[in-house]
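Milestone M4 deliverable, item 7.
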Amino acid sequence: MRSSFMGLTTLLRALQAQQTALDVTNQNIANANTDGYTRQEAKLVQTAPFAGTGFNRPAGGGLMLGTGVMVQEITRQRDAYVDQQLRAQIASQQKAQILSDGVQQVEAIFNEPSNYGLSSQMARFFNAWSELSNNPGSATARTQLQAQGQALASGFRDVAQQLDQYRSDQDSQIMSVVAEVNDVAVRIADLNLQIRKSVGNGDRPNDLMDARDRLVDQITKLSGATTREETDGSTTVNLGGRLLVSGSRANSITAELTPLASGKASHTLTWWP
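Output delivered:
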């Protein structure tokens, strides 16, 4: 006959498995408002059955007795496909927002339409010319033309200075974003190393994966980078068709100013292995 201790062992396994599942539920509730936390689930599976040996084994054989339940693993409830689609949409929306903000700032610089924009100043300037052509001997008309010409020249200078300042601000912003992208790439590579080691040991480093996903979301929003999950648990990050993060290795980028024929300069991204 089967030992009564086997029944107690089965009961103990059930209690332990349900306690673990309850702990996971408590963890989910505690982190309901935690940014970047992924809901977890305890995956329960039945343990190996007991066939019986010696006098405990039926003469005809084939009798397999259940031995209870166990927690096989604690998984994250996350859809990789949805993640990819969401990040692509976030990157697209961020790009559109940057372009929209840029257009609004340039519109504010030109101040159109208004009584103080360049178009109004040019209209007043040409009206002054028309007035002088109708009254070539008028000292007042000449003075008015001179004043309108000076005002128009001043308006062009003001717009040019504001555009130069806007360009300078954008240059600084580009340098700041490049530095942030490099920093995030290094942190993703470091987490890749930790996660790969943990997965290799048979563990499920859910907290580390959540931390990496937050960084992946950040770098996607910053740069429009794309990512791919690898079988070893690491995440590969591509930016502009080039590898930014591969396993535990992070490449870096620099933004260098390239002089243009106009006397201005344009940023060129350079990759460093």
